[in-house]
Design brief:
This protein has 3 helices and no strands. By secondary structure, it is mainly alpha-helical.
């Protein structure tokens, strides 16, 4: 779980570097504020809840033009397990 959390924290940092969006920056700040260490469950859960709320707000806002920088970070469509319908 710690490796997965570290991987997601790194991914969020990469996204924050290419996206100029207040909510993405807030999520990055929440992730950066928590340390990945043993016996830190409550702090990690609090940060995860905060990031989850930010993600919901980001989805509800509907403004995606400023998220176009994320496209370069996505894996190639040919590697997706799920393929879009033609």
């Amino acid at each position: 779980a710690a490796k997965r959390a570290a991987r997601q924290k790194k991914r969020l940092y990469e996204i924050a570097q290419v996206v100029d969006n207040r909510l993405v920056k807030e999520a990055m700040d929440a992730a950066a504020a928590v340390r990945l260490k043993l016996n830190n469950r409550e702090e990690l859960l609090t940060a995860a809840d905060q990031i989850g709320r930010i993600a919901l707000e980001l989805g509800e806002q509907g403004e995606t033009a400023d998220l176009s920088g994320v496209d370069a970070l996505l894996p190639a469509e040919s590697t997706w397990l799920w393929q879009p319908r033609p």
